[in-house]
């Protein structure tokens, strides 16, 4: 029997209405901070209108598809809001993607214009656009197009038209174009605003690519609450700490990998607060082992709230600072108003305001939604009596050994508690006798004695793990392979690397 939980939320406003409303309420308050630059809410509105007028003169109209592959800069946000002012359909592309992924996105979406950063991090994006014959290419950072706002048509009035095309990671096949409306993205951002209880006194941070689905999520929160965020074009510690401290950041995060990086820096000077103003780490996008939560709270002296989201549904659940420590450590939080969660045969299914409108390819849409209109996530989990969601793994991440289902996440969570393990990924590998065997791939903590398979299994036995779930193979790596957005571990690369090994 399925179990459901649901709430309601009015998210009828468009993105541009949020921009105008916030500019009217607090015009002179800063919204974006980057190095020594500051942009106020009114400057964001006015700059976006001027850029919209320039785009309109170039031929951009409501419904025109405009792709952009830009790093996290103030100009990127201005361009994105200019496109919302026009009612264009924008297709953000992660700036680390190259010819194959970019060509697929541009041609599949039939983009008429393509904004690039020129040469960025020693890569010539303009030359790439020429190689793949991208139409209407322009370098956004040479100078954003500008014009007279008086020439603009009326802003779009509906928040339910498709205005955004985001791309899944495409780690095992071509990426899918995910269709979003202003309404669905505002609902996702509202989840953060609802759960985190922030105020105008806070200062946030965007340390991940703004082209990620989390970009507009976070911007919605700034527009709703009226506080600023520090932008990081390139995030690396300890270099980024200067800007966190200079701007007095109170809320930071991104994903589990970010928590681990902050924690590693804190451990270099355990008696000194890493960021004196910081009070909350928040993020999502990847599983969060309970031990990481407890270590952050214990050693950094801040709250840690974690959530659950995906490209198709930017924010599904979020932990709240007033949740119990047990719920914060072991669950993904609760759904916001407007999100309905159904658990069917242990699988998480979703319906509500923040769920995408489908995919560019109609066949993908048919496959992804059930007969009741719920998105089939492929994630496994259950709801607690208090309505908190616990994720137990992915269908693709279930290892079937001798007919028994084994959750990779359960083993990973236990191994994160080993003091000599910095990070871990557990995968299933083809095995002639067992069907699949359990392989643990670990990053070891610097300066610790090299671990053996016997050491790892002894730790898991002591933690109470059933013998049939114990790893039969151990691989130690300098660094787990990760993507460039939220630093998720790419397990498919590990499977490719170790599937030919025989143990």
Describe this structure in words.
The chain has 503 residues and is α/β, with parallel strands linked by helices. The chain has 3 domains: 15-181, Rossmann fold (3-Layer(aba) Sandwich), CATH 3.40.50; 183-344 and 381-394, 3-Layer(aba) Sandwich (Rossmann fold), CATH 3.40.50; 402-498, GMP Synthetase, Chain A, domain 3, CATH 3.30.300.30. It is built from 15 helices and 27 strands. The strands form 8 sheets. Strands 1-18-19-21-22 form a 5-stranded antiparallel β-sheet. Strand 7 (119-120) and strand 8 form a beta hairpin. Mean pLDDT is 91; it is low at 6-12.
Query: What is the CATH topology assignment of the largest domain?
Result: Rossmann fold
Tell me, briefly, the overall form. globular
Just name the CATH architecture of the largest domain.
Answer: 3-Layer(aba) Sandwich
How does the helix and strand content classify structurally?
alpha/beta
The rounded distance between the terminal residues' Cα atoms is 41 Å
* Low-confidence runs of at least 5 consecutive residues: 6-12
| Percentage of residues in helical conformation | 25-40%
The first-level CATH class of the largest domain is given as: Alpha Beta
Number of DSSP helical runs:
15
Give the tally of β-strands.
Answer: 27
**How many distinct folded domains?**
3
Strand order within the widest beta sheet: 1-18-19-21-22
Tell me what portion of residues adopts beta-strand conformation: 25-35%
Using the CA coordinates, give the radius of gyration: 23 Å
């Amino acid at each position: 029997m399925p179990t459901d939980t649901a709430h309601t939320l009015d998210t009828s406003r468009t993105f541009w209405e949020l921009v105008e409303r916030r500019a009217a309420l607090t015009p002179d308050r800063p919204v974006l901070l980057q190095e020594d630059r500051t942009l106020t809410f009114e400057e964001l509105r006015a700059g976006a209108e001027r850029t919209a007028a320039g785009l309109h003169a170039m031929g951009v109209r409501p419904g025109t598809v405009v792709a952009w592959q830009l790093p996290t800069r103030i100009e990127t946000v201005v361009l994105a809001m200019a496109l919302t002012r026009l009612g264009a359909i924008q297709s953000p592309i992660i700036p680390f993607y190259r010819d194959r992924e970019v060509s697929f996105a541009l041609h599949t979406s039939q983009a008429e214009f393509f904004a690039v950063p020129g040469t960025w991090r020693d890569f010539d994006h303009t030359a790439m656009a020429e190689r793949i014959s991208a139409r209407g290419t322009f370098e956004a950072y040479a100078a954003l197009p500008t014009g007279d706002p008086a020439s603009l048509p009326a802003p779009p009035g509906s928040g339910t038209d498709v205005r955004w095309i985001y791309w899944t990671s495409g780690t095992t096949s071509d990426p899918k174009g995910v269709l979003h409306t202003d309404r669905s993205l505002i609902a996702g951002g509202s989840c953060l605003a609802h759960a985190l209880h922030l105020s105008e006194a806070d200062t946030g941070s965007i340390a991940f690519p703004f082209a990620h689905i989390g970009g507009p999520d976070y911007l919605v929160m700034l527009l709703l609450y009226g506080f600023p965020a520090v932008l990081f074009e390139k995030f690396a510690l300890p270099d980024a700490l200067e800007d966190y401290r200079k701007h007095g950041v109170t809320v930071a995060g991104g994903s589990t990998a970010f928590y681990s990086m902050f924690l590693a820096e804190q451990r270099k000077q355990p008696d000194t607060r890493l960021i004196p103003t910081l009070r909350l780490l928040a993020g999502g996008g990847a599983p969060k082992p309970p031990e990481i939560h407890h270590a952050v709270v214990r050693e950094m002296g801040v709250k840690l709230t974690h959530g659950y989201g995906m490209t198709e549904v930017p924010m599904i659940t979020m932990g709240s600072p007033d949740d119990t420590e047990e719920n914060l450590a072991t669950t993904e939080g609760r759904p916001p108003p407007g999100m309905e969660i159904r658990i069917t045969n242990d699988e998480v299914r979703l319906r509500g305001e923040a769920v995408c409108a489908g995919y560019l390819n109609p066949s993908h849409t048919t496959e992804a939604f059930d007969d009741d209109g719920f998105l089939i996530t492929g994630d496994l989990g259950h709801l607690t009596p208090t309505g908190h969601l616990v994720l137990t793994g992915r269908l693709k991440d279930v290892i079937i050994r001798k007919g028994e289902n084994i959750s990779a996440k359960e083993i990973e969570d236990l191994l994160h508690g080993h003091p000599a393990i910095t990070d871990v990924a557990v995968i299933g590998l083809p095995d002639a006798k067992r069907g699949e065997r359990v392989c643990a791939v670990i990053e070891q903590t610097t300066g610790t004695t090299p671990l053996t398979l016997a050491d790892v299994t002894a730790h898991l036995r002591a933690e109470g793990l059933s013998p049939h779930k114990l790893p039969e193979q151990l691989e130690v790596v300098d660094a787990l392979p990760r993507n460039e957005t939220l630093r998720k571990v790419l397990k498919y690369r590990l499977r490719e690397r170790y599937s030919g090994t025989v143990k």
